[in-house]
Amino acid sequence: MPQATGRADATRAVVFSPLDGAGRAELVEQRLTDAIVAGVLRDGERLPSESELARRLGVAVVTAREALVALREKGLVQTKRGRDGGSFVTHDRDATSRMIDGRLRALSRIELRDLSLHYAAIAGMAAEVAADRASEDDLTSLVEIDARADLTTAGGARRAVGRFQLEIAAVSQSPRLVHEELRLQAEAGPLLWLCLREQDSRDRSRIARLEVIRAIREVQPEAARRATTEHIASAVEWLIDEKVRLEQASADASVPDRPEGGGP
User: Fold this and answer.
1) What is the pTM of this model?
2) b/e 195-232 (16+ beta carbons within 10 angstroms → b)
3) Which CATH number, 1.20.120.530, 1.10.357.140, 3.40.50.720, 1.25.40.10, labels domain 107-250?
4) What are the mean pLDDT values of the chain's consecutive 10-residue runs (264 residues total)?
5) CB under 8 Å, gap of 24 or more: what pairs does 245-253 form?
6) Which CATH architecture has domain 6-91?
7) Cα distances (angstroms) measured from residue 140 to each of 17, 83, 171, 180
């Protein structure tokens, strides 16, 4: 079973893997933004050079350069000149929170539900297959991940969800499911699990983990899939409600205050 360092290395490998489709600067920017927000690329970390980044992602050097310019404008990357220079991650939690909120406002409800369907298809299938293939050692590993989960912070809860679901994919013994789980964690995890800002959602995430563990222990593939997909669906429903709240708050802020007395 993969350990924490193995997971981190594998996730980073996915971040710098070739992009699907046309190599637009926006795709490179989004890939790196999500990795920074998720904590895969950490504050102070040096990114590959423009030429190396372009080679790894399968894009033109000018495309990589445009993406880095956009990241600098967002305040996520700082470029230094000289012998020890390069592009370095600068992680500002407040800026990151605003960025994720902005991304949520930009997505439609249809897009959010589509994200739910995609993630649920991958994670649900992994859980279903894992229930058939898990050994006692696999179960012990899943129980330990749950026991070590830090539910006191959103970041801790998100890492617990990510590691647990990656372990489930590994138990399924499908390299394709593992790779796709890693890719979704790097690109969609920060948005999908935004609900973990709230303690109630963190508590529900643990209940979902325990349901999956029980289903795997009792060799109930359908129950394992159902617990996984329902957890993801509830996270997306929270996102849709949060999107409505953010849009309402933005609309309220744009309405000028009426003068006292109600006169014209």
Assistant:
1) 0.70
2) bbbeeebbebbbebbebbbebbeeebbebbbbbbbebb
3) 1.20.120.530
4) 47 72 78 76 89 92 94 88 85 73 89 92 96 94 94 88 90 87 80 92 96 98 97 95 90 70 52
5) 246/101, 246/104, 246/105, 247/105, 250/105
6) Orthogonal Bundle (1.10)
7) 32, 48, 12, 24
